[in-house]
Amino acid sequence: MFIDFEGIDGSGKTTLSNLLAARLKRLGYKVAHAREGGELQSPTARRIRDLTRDAKLLEMGPRAEFFLNLARDAQQLEEVIAPALKRGDVCITDRYLYSQLALTGGGRGLKEAQLLPACELASQGLWPDLVILVDVDPDLARLRKRLGKVQSGKVNDADSRKGLVGAGLAVRVREAFLAQARKDPARWIILENNDQPLRVLEQRLVDAVVARLEGREQPVQRLVPAPPAPGAVSVDDVEERFFQAVDGLEAREPQLAAWLLNGIPGLPAHQRRVAYAERLPGLVARSLSGLDDDTAWTLRDVLSASVPADVAEGLGFVTSPRSHALRQRLYAQAPAAVLEGLKRQDSPEAWALRERGMKDGHLAAVLLGLVGVDGEESWVVREAGMQRKLYSEVARSLGGLSTGRAEALRDALIPHDRLAVLKSTTGLETPVAVGLREQLEKGALKLVLRSLTGVDTPRAWAMRERGAQSTKEALDSVDGMDSPAAWKLRASAARRWPATVVSSMRGLPLVAETRALLERILEEQAGKLPVLRNAYAVVAHARALEQAQRPARALAETLGVDAGRQEA
């Protein structure tokens, strides 16, 4: 039997396909996995895959990508799959030609009818007997994928070509997979991986596959029916509902439960961090990102000995005296994380650490921590980076700088790493920024849109409106913006990109406009965990902001001064 697993990135298909292979072997079946352990078994196929993922090849068109992917699958078929089936093995694949139809047809927009003949040629008439579509909410898949990168130490890895298109690609690919499954229900089984424990999914999958192997038919296409939608959620009860969801998730995906607390202030979040700290110290430390309250500092002190790099990462942009002292203590154990965390810091304490890092040979990390720093010392370091050919790190060090000197260096760096240069233009509307956005809008839409964060110009809004039709990063770029154009974009995109629309309101006060849009999205998307999480983050930050402003307001009232005019 030939069994194929399909699904978007982060769906869990690789994990489940390997679990199935292991279980079938224990049951006495001879099994070959064409992507055992997540790695293609054909060396030639691996080299082709590296080519299709290379982010430097942005000009590669969808047809060229399609034929390269066909070549990869054809080689896997000839070298691994066909021989295994000839031996009488159960052969399992993690992606086959259905992926190319979904990616190039659904994702890239080519017509499926034009793609099918080439797929038939590549298949040599050999198609899977059973296809397992591991279906998942794309927002949840993205959270799991990000968590996986953190846990594997790959959080700073560059995006693939596919990743640079934006998160909307996964939505379109998922829709294409579901359409394929509806056309051929006898061959496809849909396994939902949204809210079930892994052991339950594994057992139901094994039962279904063994039934096929024994000649018994599976009576339904969906192995795990979607659960009934929960009752409506409002802004006033979003805290209770969010923590109910987190506590339920903790039993089946504790790492994800801890990850969902990232950056969320307040006592309920801290209580759960304390409960998770012994089992998941690294994730707890990272979840403190940007928090500056006493409980956060106590947790950092407790965790600094066991997970120093994670504690350093979890400092975010905190620049208080306590952060300087902690970075000094952490440097010996996690120098790179400490140095990279000095962004926008031009203090003597920050420069003392940078000088230490330079002496210790950590030039690349020092450069990555120079974002937003424009003093003469920073340019000496950048010159040293250029001499060492650390072009990507030098480019990223220019983040937030709009001076002529910074623009000239960006121009010089474009031939070496144009994506890093593009990242450095976030929030800017300089000639280099405008030129790169126009050049890369098609191949690296995600980075182009994110580089618009905070930019309030007609050109930027036109680009956001175009981008919002295909991917959610158009909404990422309006994070914290309170202009009429930002609210108009949020309202128009709320149904297509609900979780991102909600997260874009983080940092805004909980006024009538914010509450109204939150209520609308929560009513429509009550069962989606990413939406619930982002909604509570908006509410929690708004409450924290209000509490921080209370002492100033109280003092202003005592003195008879308008609190809103104090800074002026």
TrEMBL record:
The keyword ATP-binding applies. It holds the Pfam family Thymidylate_kin. Keywords: ATP-binding, Kinase, Nucleotide biosynthesis, Nucleotide-binding, Transferase. Residues 5-193 form the Thymidylate kinase-like domain. GO terms for biological process: dTDP biosynthetic process; dTTP biosynthetic process; dUDP biosynthetic process. One of its GO terms (molecular function) is dTMP kinase activity. CDD domains: TMPK. Its EC number is 2.7.4.9. SUPFAM superfamilies: P-loop containing nucleoside triphosphate hydrolases. It catalyses: dTMP + ATP = dTDP + ADP. GO terms for cellular component: cytosol. ATP binds at residues 7-14. InterPro entries: P-loop_NTPase, Thymidylate_kin-like_dom, Thymidylate_kinase. The keyword Manganese does not apply. Belongs to the thymidylate kinase family. Phosphorylation of dTMP to form dTDP in both de novo and salvage pathways of dTTP synthesis. This is Thymidylate kinase. It comes from Corallococcus exiguus.
